[in-house]
Amino acid sequence: MRDPYLPHAARVVERRQESPTIFTLRLELKDPAERESYLFHPGQFNMVYLPGAGEVPISIVSDPQDPHLLDHTIRAVGRVTQGLSALRAGDQIGLRGPYGRGWPLSECQGQDIVVLTGGLGCAPVVGAIRYILRRRHHYGRLVILQGVKHADDLIWRGSYQAWAAQPETQVLLAADQAPAGEWPWYTGRVLDLIDQAKFDPHNCTVMMCGPEPMMWAGVAALIERGVATDAIWLSMERNMQCALGHCGHCQYGAEFVCRHGPVFCYHDIRDRLGRRGF
Amino acid sequence: MGTYLGLLQRRHADTLIQRLRGAGYHVLGPVVQDGTIRYAPVDGFDRLPAGWVEQQAPGHYRLQKRDSPRCFSWTLGPQGLKPLTFAPEEPLWTVERRHGHGLEFHSHFPETKKQAVLGVRACDLAALALQDRHFLGGPHPDERYRRRREGLLLIAVHCHRAAPTCFCASTGDGPRAHHGFDLALSELDEGYLVEAGSEAGHALAAALPLIPPQPGQQARAEREIRHAGEAQERRLPGRDLMTALRARRDAAHWEEIGRRCLACGNCTSVCPTCFCHCHQERPHPTEDRSSHYRQWDSCFTSGHSYIHGIVIREDTALRYRQWLSHKLGEWHAQYGRSGCVGCGRCITWCPVGIDLTHETAALLAAPPDDSEACDA
């Protein structure tokens, strides 16, 4: 019988350093049958297991059209992620997933798309951006707003530049702090840029990810521009251990983030977002 | 009122255990252990706590022996059925690094046996039904829970006595067991009135030397059960408190409870419906293998809501709010009813005697929050 708790062996195909603390692991499931049957949706996550250390939930940033190589972009902050950071190509780890609900990419066809992210928060939406750009004619305008604390924190600089050159696509980047002369974009809060974003607030879908105070303020700014509460989607993070809706750690009100999220419609969590203790 | 199949005379009570053992069941029954009542293997009714009753009060549990032949006059011990189906700790899987093969993962599943539990209370049957919904009702049924659960045969005993901490009448879960048992007993001095709740229960009853009840015996049992409900001093202010509690997230009373609560997690350990558990990695000290365990966890710990350097519920008031609002509120959205079955264990085993029925009443007495505030 299939055991949903059991990881599958996966091989590190490539390890890329994205910033001093952020790295990407390209993983391949070892078993060809597992590899063939693995399908994911942008916004979903895997449980990545480091032998002897434990599991962590990590969103999948690669393109779902190539589910054979699964990219995970990780910040080394804790015991497991620091261990994962020391991996090299050829090493083996464990992987199970995908889990949760991803972005509403079918439902928002024909609409303008606004992607608003902060910090490493961009990781859960990168798969969605790639998905949209690959099917460019199914969507309206694409606006990508990304904010970082410090200019050095920006990863995927090349990707943002390439995305900015796509038709009907606007990329707005902001850093709270940036050394003069080395940052061609805006210095200040990313939310200051919402006024410059060109999209139809009455026919759009917003995808957000990042620190909760930033998302809460972003929601307020978007509603001010006329975006409906059910057009705003957020990827939430909580302590997740089982990823199956059993262990109880990720409860967010009545919802389990691992199962009913991590992507939520703002309308459904408007009573909780930004409130202490949820 | 139950449909009694007959009376099992006290002198023949052991035939019940003998029939169960004959059918291949390991029989667990209530025994006096460590100053409490616990379920343990029993081979005859002489192992059962005849005459024992317990005194329960907030932060208080003491056993007392009385001169009575009855084996089920006690109401509850600290644990119900939860440890039998949702193990306090168990290995999920082990990984080994094999030369030339890389990592190999192996699942661990429990060695299950047919177990019969004698003396299950109505509140604990209701709690088991809730745990079934949690562990088996979703898209990923829990195989380890399922295997333990499927091997259980449940012999309920209706409560003829209520502890002062009991409030199952107000949650609708007792003192009579209505669902989820194979066999149910009502205990009188002279023996046990027997009901069946399943095919297995009917088969078991058919193998017992039952005699027709005498006039008045059924009425006496019903009167005692009814009295056990009516005598309950505690109650919750309603069956569905989700909306009322959601409207009081900012009530000052949460802070007041937070100053008394020790965040020890006793309440979640004895609660028969609490399902939280954490995962633990246990690497072998010398060999190249590691095992992954799960263990009961509590929403009163800081680790429960920890995420990359942040504790979401940073103080005890927020943790108590999470526990109570989930138990009495959000369970309705998750599983269609309250997560509280009125057993009162969280009151008894709280070292500082916090009483959720009093706290809930105090919270509901406060006016609803006035705005959709944001703390971001």
Walk me through this protein's architecture.
The complex is a heterodimer of chains A (278) and B (376). Chain A is an alpha/beta fold and 278 residues long. Chain A has two domains: 8-99, Translation factors (Elongation Factor Tu (Ef-tu), domain 3, Beta Barrel); 112-269, Rossmann fold (3-Layer(aba) Sandwich). Chain A has helices spanning 32-37, 79-85, 123-134, 157-164, 212-224, 257-260, 266-269, and strands at residues 8-17, 22-29, 45-50, 54-59, 70-75, 92-99, 112-118, 142-150, 169-177, 186-187, 204-209, 232-235, 251-252, 255-256, 263-265. Chain A has a seven-stranded mixed sheet, sandwiched between helices. A six-stranded antiparallel sheet of chain A has the order 4-3-6-1-2-5. A two-stranded antiparallel sheet of chain A has the order 13-14. Chain A is globular, with a radius of gyration of 18 Å. The mean pLDDT of chain A is 94. Chain B is of the alpha+beta class and 376 residues long. Chain B has two domains: 6-80 and 105-230, no CATH class; 242-365, no CATH class. Helices cover 30% and strands 24% of the residues of chain B. Chain B is built from 13 helices and 15 strands. Chain B has helices spanning 14-22, 82-85, 122-136, 143-150, 168-171, 199-206, 217-230, 242-246, 253-260, 266-270, 316-335, 345-348, 356-365, and strands at residues 6-9, 26-33, 36-41, 52-57, 60-65, 89-98, 102-107, 115-120, 152-157, 183-188, 191-196, 277-283, 289-296, 306-307, 310-311. In chain B, the strands form four sheets. Chain B has a seven-stranded mixed sheet with strand order 1-11-10-9-8-2-3. Chain B has a four-stranded antiparallel sheet with strand order 7-6-13-12, with no helix packed on it. In chain B, strand 4 and strand 5 form a beta hairpin. The interface between A and B is large, with 49 and 53 residues.
